[in-house]
Automatic annotation (TrEMBL):
The keyword Metal-binding applies. S-adenosyl-L-methionine binds at residues 49, 80, 96, 124-125. GO terms for biological process: tRNA N2-guanine methylation. Keywords: Metal-binding, Methyltransferase, RNA-binding, S-adenosyl-L-methionine, Transferase, tRNA processing, tRNA-binding, Zinc. It is an enzyme of class 2 (transferase). This is tRNA (guanine(26)-N(2))-dimethyltransferase. Zn(2+) binds at residues 260, 263, 276, 279.
Amino acid sequence: MDVGFPVRVVREGGVEIVVPDMDVYRRPNGVYEPAWAPVFYNPRMAFNRDIAVVFARTYARLRGLDKLVVVEPLAGSGVRAVRYAVEAGAIVFASDIDSDAVYLSRVNAERNKVSERVRVEKADANEFMARLPRMGVKPTIIDIDPFGSPAPFLDTAIQALRPRGVLAVTATDTAPLSGTHPRALRRRYDVRPGRLAWEKEQAVRILAGYIIRRAAAHEYGVRILLAYYVDYYVRIYAELWRGAGRADKSLEQLGYGAYCYSCGYTSLASNPLERCPYCQAQLGIVGPLYIGKLCDESFIEEMLREAEKMWDILAEPDRVVKLLEQLLKECDIVKPYYRLDKLCSILRMNMPKMNTVVEELRNRGYNATRTHFDPRGFKTNAPHWAVVKMLLETRR
Ligand SMILES: C[S@@+](CC[C@H](N)C(=O)[O-])C[C@H]1O[C@@H](n2cnc3c(N)ncnc32)[C@H](O)[C@@H]1O
């Protein structure tokens, strides 16, 4: 096949797609760099796409939708669009600003016999989404999967959505979101910047909070169905439902994150505390951010059922199930995770085993679990004094 650059055929999930030949676009150190290829295809994001199709099928089933319309305005090779069509039975409207990407997406739709259901246009993402209402397209899911920050696309996506629908958003600008680049964090997300010990949860909560604020401006309320951080990106599935009252209610879910660099205290609160309630030191504060639950248990349980049905189709089914099961354990614990290594360094003690910490907290009647955010982290609803007491007592 002559598309003007070297290609190869790969299988991902339930589709077979043509992508740039990854051996040709490697850095001198041998690492494949998707952004160097003429059309973007990242095999490491197959897991992200697995979850996207499981989510779409679950959402359509639970809402009783007989027609699922998905919009993917930053389509790259078209792999995600084609997977939505083949694996979730969706009608997909996709676009990309790059001509080669549009061509390859069309080739891939045809190759998988879904060109009737996957329409791809060469267009700027915002211009494309702004045109959708005039085209009579009413998306149930809009999947924003950009290079870096999704912020420039959110307003148009929200306005293009049905009165009730889902924004599925990826953010790879994790350095600003987790506080490493404070000026970019303030600029892009209008957030009082800082860097807390639970930086990955901070990244997810800031993006969720920003979606809530943008949605409220357009009179939509938001329910966070699923939000997580893996590899090098944040991913959020937010259900938006039009209504000023719903928007007002969602805004009540905004607040501030706090971390005490002196004693390791961590919390979420509606109003920013300035002093640590345990040791009175000045707190690190970040916000506004989302202070509610990061997933909906019953929805995740349904996703797990759907993932079992798709076991032979998904690219990484065991990883999908493992993440969903872990999120299910974390769902109820809203308080941000503790970094065991940082807490032990503050307490000047050796680090006990993570399993011991989790078990010990459970033995004392608290909810506790490891966290998907960080292998060095744990989540618990135990108050800070109880966490410190437990750690000091394991020292004996
Ligand atoms: C991260 S890639 C998308 C990957 C794809 N969603 C997937 O799952 O493989 C981002 C894509 O956005 C396209 N792009 C960048 N800026 C754009 C814009 N303003 N409008 C439309 N497409 C754009 C790029 O050409 C690139 O193909």
